[in-house]
Specification:
mainly alpha, 4 domains, 7 helices, 199 residues, two-stranded antiparallel sheet
């Protein structure tokens, strides 16, 4: 503060203008005029220390001179290795919190078995052996439908291109892991549903 009672910014030297609704005590504590100057000056909030204890290795680390107040507040570990350790600890804690799921078949809640790994528990879609069998049958039926739709789409494509050699058709069917039906090679049977669909 100058002799005329004007407060000057310690970073840029400009006058610190009092903000609307800013109390006298709050205005008197300000040492910078804006946030940019606060970041340039690295103004430390009250009660904040320049040292922290790393929760991973229990070592004391200090604040870097290039770190802003927001960056220093967000930093929880001393280096990248300890940060990775803390991240894995957090993931492990979150995995331990997941103890139940909803069965995709009967919509009942089933619990995680003692000692069951997180990935194995999340891979389970059903609660009991009965629901597991139903889920597997549904998956097989879905795969059959998908393969049938693919076979019909290939057949329609083949029938619209009569000049395609039979060897190329068989190669394409083998590549798609489909069994070619005999009606695919006869143009006069166009529109008849296949009698030899993949199983």
């Amino acid at each position: 503060m100058t002799a005329m009672g004007v407060m000057l910014c310690q970073a840029c030297g400009d006058e610190i203008v009092r903000k609307p609704h800013e109390g006298p005590s709050t205005y008197a504590k300000r040492v910078v005029c804006c946030r940019a100057c606060a970041g340039a000056l690295k103004v430390k909030p009250r009660g904040e220390s320049d040292e922290k204890v790393c929760p991973a290795c229990s070592q004391v680390f200090k604040r870097n001179g290039r770190q802003s107040a927001v960056q220093w507040k967000a930093k929880v570990a001393c280096d990248q290795r300890c940060t990775a350790v803390m991240r894995e600890r957090l993931k492990a804690e979150m995995r331990e919190l997941v103890t139940s799921r909803i069965c995709e078949i009967c919509d009942r809640e089933f619990s995680r078995m003692p000692g069951e790994q997180y990935t194995r528990f999340m891979a389970r879609a059903a609660c009991s052996p009965t629901c597991v069998k139903i889920h597997r049958r549904q998956q097989r039926a879905t795969r059959k439908i998908q393969q049938t739709v693919t076979a019909v789409a290939v057949a329609v494509t083949v029938m619209t291109l009569p000049s395609v050699p039979r060897e190329l058709i068989e190669q394409e069917m083998c590549r798609r892991n489909l069994r070619p039906a005999a009606w695919m090679y006869t143009p006069d049977t166009c529109g008849v549903l296949p009698h030899d669909v993949p199983s």
